[in-house]
Design goal:
- This protein is an alpha/beta fold and about 350 residues long.
- About 45% of the residues lie in helices and about 15% in strands.
- Strands 1, 2, 3, 4, 5, 6, 7, 8 and 9 form a nine-stranded mixed beta sheet that branches.
- Strand 2, helix 2 and strand 3 form a beta-alpha-beta unit.
- Helix 8 runs parallel beside helix 11, helix 9 packs across helix 10 and helix 9 packs across helix 11.
- It is globular.
Amino acid sequence: MQLPPLPERPAVSFVMPVLNEEGFLESAVRTILAQDYAGEKEIVLALGPSTDASDAIAERLAAEDPRVRLVANPERDIPAGLNHAIAASRHPVIIRVDAHSELTPDYTRLGIAALARTGAANVGGIMRAAGRGSVQRAIARGYNSPFGLGGGAYHGDGVAGEAESAYLGIFRREAIEAVGGYDPTILRGEDWELNLRIRRAGFTVWFEPALGVTYWPRASLGDLARQFFATGTWRAVLVRRYGRANPWRFFAPGALVLGIAVSVIALILLVSGVLPWASAWPILLAPAALYLLGILFAVARIPDQRGITDRILTGATLITMHLSWGAGFLRGITLGGGRVVDRSRIG
């Protein structure tokens, strides 16, 4: 579908859902205000019911700069917050941002240029995860590696072109309004779902590797597990709803969990003598054995590791990502999403 041409420097609205982000919110907003884009801009923060100092920080930022505006998000969920912020925004280009993300200074300028050049409805770039402590750095390595998340071009250095989805996103307002905004019933994976509807409406989603975003992931394996369980659950909901529109890679973690479960049960039965070792039954140990070999291979290949501790943490991160996502996926396939949410940021 053809969109009308953009003006040379269209005004832009940044929209950000906020829930318990006291450690990240101010830095994220500062990177937006520091964008080297010459057009008019505003930031609309959708404030969920935080239990930390996020609201106070947001109110101070809004008092300091009239470009920062606040709206309430009583539902607390990300898609509802984004819809509230978009409804309150005023400009023809909508840029989704996240409190855990920091934009490069040229992000907006290059993104607007890509929108104008390609005629796309949404443009996204590369998410580069970063960490401060040893555990968060290991989690960042998992995010940045195809052995961790894999698949999406925005987790690596892909080639510019049409894409299935986009990280965050620089949107034409017309496209968002044409498809009805974010689906508030999809509590995770809302970006992929929105981009699917945008593409089905005849618009283009574009990957532009010149766009860079620094993402600060969870800082503990427990929080990572809660996040990925929720993500896997809602990916299964999307599989139930959209079927073959989902890439095959989304089925792999669930199959992995089933395979490892078979191996564990087989090992228990073999050790207890219920099944004889001198038989074909030990072949059931293969899924777990092959997975462990795969983890060792991945740990050996992933860069930016210093010493055995880093490698152990990298391996633990990959296992946490895969098994939590896979377990959530199986939960979602069998029971649906329910009220499964990422509770790693909820106080």
